[in-house]
Amino acid sequence: MEIQQSPLYISYIKRLGWQVEEVDGSHLFLKRFPFYGGFAKLQRCTKLPKIDHLLPILAKYRIKKLVVEPDACVTQDAFSRWLKDALPHVRLVHSPYLPTKTIRVDLIESEEEIFTRFSEAKRRAVRRAQKNNLRIQESTNIQNLIKIKNKSSGFLGFITTTGIDKLWPIFSPDHAAILLAYSNSVIARSEATWQSLKIASLTPFARNDNRIIGGILLLFCDSIAYYWIAGATREGKKLFAPTLLVWEALKLAKKCGAKWFDFVGVWDERNPKQFHEWLGFTKFKEGFGGKSLYYPTATLHR
């Protein structure tokens, strides 16, 4: 199960004001917007619903537009056949709302083997960040991460963190973690949080007032750790904080029992004109030795 179909994510979607209906075992998110009308999202479903089961729900909510983004276990051929059957009855949105490609790192192997799969540039960046006295601290303060993300995203950066303050209390503490990069601090987790995850406790972190230069929000679902949002200041980037944060996040995810680390989204060469601005962080994510995972997409069949 991908995170978008998980009970916690459904609680989050409801908190944002969406209605949720189940159709053939998958959850459909529905909402009405001023001047836009009704809109529905069926995301990361492992089985495409029957059209005659879907249409009554769309009619009930007066839905005008629908986006369907299946899980990777649904083949492109199966999705194409479903689209052909659906198009006479449903107004489909072809532009994706979720990335059509991601990268996943296998966490089954040892930390040493995971690190060995990094590119030489990434291994060197981790060592340089450590020499720069960067350390990573786990935090429970979502506002600190939001501030860093907003700052790193520039003008209108607040849009990238919309709803995160509502997501955090739903997933934390057992299914989420925040890692923050400081210029001079140490990694630690509060004893209560370690115990909740049923892993060996460490000494609780002592207060440190150094400024934050980067951060990551991780979400955990069904043995997958998701690199949900991340950001760093200019200083943090110069000191290689983003690379060290990913390395510490990989180790933390492995300790928490995750089998895969999902980078959530990268540029998809199947649609080269779409999300072209993602090329930079795609190159960054590719350096950690993961495997590409492709989702079936409607944009290939306009």
Automatic annotation (TrEMBL):
Record-level GO BP terms: cell wall organization; peptidoglycan biosynthetic process; regulation of cell shape
The protein's name: BioF2-like acetyltransferase domain-containing protein
GO-annotated molecular function: aminoacyltransferase activity
Organism whose genome encodes this protein: Candidatus Gottesmanbacteria bacterium RIFCSPLOWO2_01_FULL_49_10
Similarity field: Belongs to the FemABX family.
Alphabetical UniProt keywords: Acyltransferase, Cell shape, Cell wall biogenesis/degradation, Peptidoglycan synthesis, Transferase
Gene3D superfamilies tied to this protein: 3.40.630.30
